[in-house]
Design a protein that fits this description.
Layout: E1 15-23, H1 30-40, E2 46-52, E3 59-65, H2 68-79, E4 83-93, H3 102-111, H4 117-136, E5 145-153, E6 155-156, E7 159-160, H5 166-181, E8 188-193, E9 202-208, H6 211-222, H7 225-230, E10 231-233, E11 237-242, H8 244-250
């Protein structure tokens, strides 16, 4: 049975593919260019193309969209060009299970002696609605630098994340989040889930306008207990965001 007109939808959230590609010199990138153009012509599909810094790859492509069939077709067309895929990662956008609940927020407001708790909660609900939409249905920002890395939580003796009870994991993650919020506006992050889908449990994509702020936030978070005790990290990839034509030209593809 054919599936040409039937899309496979993630459910809640969108699918995400990261590709790191090595160009075969002298080839044409026309089909890669056409594949990305056709993919992004359909809302809400998005693509970020970037020139990879260093020598492990020439350029990278990040694809985001709700229809996994469309995502897969674009991925296969890109990979069928004059390139060799040196790394890839598949994940889906998701909400954090450790997000503050309304009861948590009400208790915090009461402890701080907030006069009008109901009004404060109304504002909090609006912020959380925006936060949920940004996590599940992101609009990728027009920043100049992208960094991506996969990660998992440890299962080591004495440092098994999954042996902790939920309340302790939530306490640690809320503290971890406070570190990240100090970089609000300077670094935008998208955390996607890959448990059971790829070799790592999460993918972290960071967007900024210059690389040192990415270095700073990753360094500072290394001292947080969530990372220092329970974090395992895969390879880091950093690139300069550009358009498709420029990325292909830099990579030697006409």
């Amino acid at each position: 049975m054919g599936h040409d007109n039937v899309g496979t939808i993630v459910g809640e959230g969108w699918g995400v593919v990261h590709l790191m590609l090595r160009a075969r010199r002298g080839g044409s990138g026309e089909d890669i260019r056409a594949a990305i153009a056709e993919f992004t012509a359909i809302e809400p599909n998005q693509a970020v193309v970037f020139s990879v810094m260093g020598g492990r790859a020439d350029f990278g492509v990040m694809l985001v969209g709700p229809d996994l069939d469309a995502l897969d077709r674009c991925t296969k067309r890109v990979r069928s060009g004059p390139v060799r895929c040196v790394a890839s990662f598949f994940s889906v956008t998701e909400q954090s299970e450790y997000t503050t609940t309304e009861n948590d927020e009400r208790a915090r407001l009461a402890a701080e002696g907030t006069d009008d708790i109901d009004a404060a909660l109304t504002q909090w609900r609006e912020r959380m609605t925006t936060y949920r939409e940004d996590r599940l249905y992101p609009r990728l920002p027009p920043r100049r630098v992208i960094a991506f890395y996969p990660m998992s939580k440890t299962r080591n003796v004495g440092a098994n994340w999954y042996a902790l009870d939920f309340a302790e994991r939530k306490r640690l993650m809320l503290g971890h989040g406070r570190v990240g919020r100090r970089y609000a506006g300077r670094v935008l992050q998208l955390i996607t889930g890959a448990t059971g889908l790829d070799d790592w449990e999460w993918g972290v994509t960071l967007f900024a306008d210059e690389p040192t702020v990415i270095k700073d936030i990753v360094y500072e978070m290394r001292f947080d207990e969530v990372s220092a005790v329970y974090g395992e990290f895969g390879p880091f990839w950093t690139g300069l965001v550009t358009d498709v034509d420029d990325a292909l030209q830099r990579s030697g593809l006409s």
